[in-house]
Each structure stands twice: as structure tokens, then as C-alpha cells.
Fold:
Amino acid sequence: MRGLIQARNLQRAAEMGQAERIRAAEDFVAVWRAEIREHFDDEERLLLPLTRSPELHRRLLDEHGELRRLAARCEFEPCTAASDPAMFRRLGTLLHDHIRWEEREFFEAVQRDHPEALAELMSEAGHIEARRPGSRARMSLTEECRAVPPTPTPTPPRRTT
Structure:
């Protein structure tokens, strides 16, 4: 996901002029429409039911909701949004922190609580990633190993006597 790049760009744009913020909003909206919005929908559809912790459940929905509201502002009111550097800073920071939280806590908890369900979701994840622009379908470890040619074993030098 290109979310971390967008987060950095939004934070940088907060320190620039309105024209740069409008461009950053346009770039963000393009990635939002192509990737991030669907990613949130997929997480809520596939992973949220596997979440045992009410705190993790609530945080995921709260942050997705806030990010959706800020994205809608960029999408439907780009000039108004661009006049608010604090909104860009907030959106960039929240997007960054949310992605890192998912990686470090949310996904870890789901994997710990339901490893069998995650294994079943792997084929669905491959289909999801294959249809997203800029994504590459993940290969299994076996496929990755087959794709990389084996390293040749060096032959020892011959000794001449």
C-alpha cells in the first residue's frame, strides 16, 4: 500500500503553500480511490470479525471513520481542505500512525487469536491484491523459492602437483 508515502506527502504539504496542498490532496485522493478505501473495506469485512478485543475493534473503526471523513474533505472540498494546513498535518499523521498500529498491534492480535482463519484468507488476499493498481500478488514461500534460481555451489580449485 502506498499509504505511508501519502502520509509523508500530506505532512510535508502542511508546511507548504495552498497550491502544493491542492496537489497533495489530488495525489492522495487518487491513491484513496484506487487503493486505501478498498483496503479499509476489506479489513472491516475480513479481519474485524476475527478481532476479539473490543479496544482493537473500536480503534480500527474509529480511525477508519476519521480517515474517511478527512479523505472526503480532500475529495469533495479540495480548495477548502487546502486552506487548512492543520488538517493536512492531522491526516498525514493519522494515516501514518494507523498503518503502523495495524502492522504492529492489530494484525498481530488477529494472527495470534485466529491463525487458522488467516490461512484460509490467504487466497482471498491474493485476489484482492491482484485487482488493486500498483499491487503485486503475493507468492507463497514455495513459489518465491522456485522463482529464485539456486545459488551455485562453488567448486574448489584444482590442485596441480
